[in-house]
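Researcher: I'd like a structural prediction for the single chain below. Treat it as a standalone chain; there are no partners to consider.
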Amino acid sequence: MRILVVLSEEAAKFKGSLKSIGTSVEVLEVKDLLFLSPSDLRQLLPAGFESIYDYVILPGSYPWDAGLVGPNVFKGPEGLGLLARLLMEGGHLQLSKQEALEKYMPSKVSSLARRDLEAVNSSPELLPATPPPMRVLAEIPLSGAESPGELLDKARSLVADGADIVVLAPLTDKARAKLKEYSSRLSDTGIALGLDADYEVLASSPSGFRVLLSLRPWQAKDVSWAKGRYVVVLSEDTAAAAEYAVHIASQGVRPVLDPVMKPPVVPGVWDSMNRLSALRYYGFPKMVGVSNVVELMDADTSGSAAMLVFIAAELGASSLLVEEASTKARGLTAEVRRAADMASLSLLWLKPPKDVGVSLLNSKVKLPELASNGYSVRLTSRDSVEVSLGSRRVTVSCRDRCPPKELGFTDPSLIIMMYRACLPWSAGWSC
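Model: Treating it as a single chain, here is the predicted structure.
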């Protein structure tokens, strides 16, 4: 099978991902590809391309019908890494002339996403130097009043939500005195453990804790007691942090660099990101404290955490520390896990974290129509919807006080669909 892949200049830098895929693939770079009409693009293709190639594949983002370019011209996925992944599978290609692969075969993309995530997340490296994968560390503050059984239940809940490592944070002398008992109970389950505590507690901690948080640069010169374990180096001085990381690495310790994330606006998260960017060139894992940022803004955590995780992935951070400290952060571990998986797929498939088979659209809707239990809700304008109940159709303003109640709707599935379709106005409904 002979294939011609047509790329824009921006995508061409990723063409190495097409190597070694077991078929004859040629690459043609075209300037301003996405702005060329089908007739203009046709003039730039090799003479006789219709008979030379089995497939000519354009980016999925090409705005025209690919069939207008030629009979053997199709749209591939929007990400070149995903195209390479598809070609590596071999066999007959199922592509559309009108739609990107992600829209044409979403079930295929979801299947590839599951397999690729399973492969990348099963990496033996607990905290890799760079993503993917991205690891989620879920912290549990401890007062000492918790029984080992209660702690085990919470740890299992966090692992079920996608935590790779459970970090214990003893806040009292009573909790610190029970660390050995706690770690013994959790270690028996195979859950990877971390410990967030003062230096004295870290230095005497049981060996079952594989990740230790945190040391300040030059807080201790001799850290040989932590040999073989990950130690988080916490500092706003990137040069000092990097120098100290090299020092402790020479003692067999595995440094993890934490640039100290700050809340947004005041004092400001931008400087934190600049520090993370400065650390990206050091060959040690980097950690981002997600809760430091998202807990201190009154916004839905699914969106704010996702954006932070995506930026962290861009800047080479592979470790995400989460603590569900407030009511609005309940379930943050699950949201960060999903965002981390979206970021991993984005890096693997060389495309934005959109249409990657995983999403965080828990509230707002992406499609113009929702349907369930014989009902449908269709978006008709930016602030109104049409509700269909069999042959009955009702147009509803999302700005009304409580449309479901006013219309006498009682079915929970219909009310939920209306609420989601009417966001953000429905957040102010008085029902």
